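Lab channel / #folding
Pinned by the channel admin:
"Please post every new chain as: sequence first, then the structure tokens as a reply. Keep commentary short and put observations after the output so the thread stays searchable."

First post following the new format, from NK:
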Amino acid sequence: MSTKTSELLATAAAGTATVVRNISDDQLSRPTPCPDYTVRELLNHLYDVVVNFQALARKQPVDWSARTEHLADGWRDGFAAETVRLVTAWSDPAAVEGDSPGMGLPQETLGAMALIDLTVHGWDLARATGQRFEVEPDVLAATHGFMDRMGDTGQRRGAFAEPVPTTADATDLDRLLGRTGRDPAWRP
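Reply from TO:
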């Protein structure tokens, strides 16, 4: 089975897992477009996101304060495996029904949160490590839809920084990045 959420997550996860697979150990201390995170710290955060959103798909509680060091032997393959588990968790139609018991948001909104994290942090990591990063149009449409609904709330709660203005000829990806408080022209 699949859901629209799992299909979008599968598409986004593939691109982000490729970026993660191509990060070399000597790039782990580099800065990222997220000023509070180095590449290593952002990888650990994104790993936590992928694992926690699996539990949220099953409507189980998560501890967002827990910080785990995931970058042990085989972490690149481990991340790819966790993204497969994420997609599988959101493939169950029950995952997108109702509200999250722990977060009080519609389950579909949580799935979109996972999607935006995979997409934007995938770009963050690609940009920090000098990799290309492309996002499929359906993922971009879904993430812009999420920002239309939840962007202001996310900004008030500290999930997104102040929007960065983009030019009239900006790509859909650049506009999404600007909406989440990132400078699409950021370079390490």
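NK: Residues 4-142 form a domain with the Four Helix Bundle (Hemerythrin (Met), subunit A) fold (CATH 1.20.120.450).
TO: also worth noting, DSSP finds six helices and no strands in the chain.
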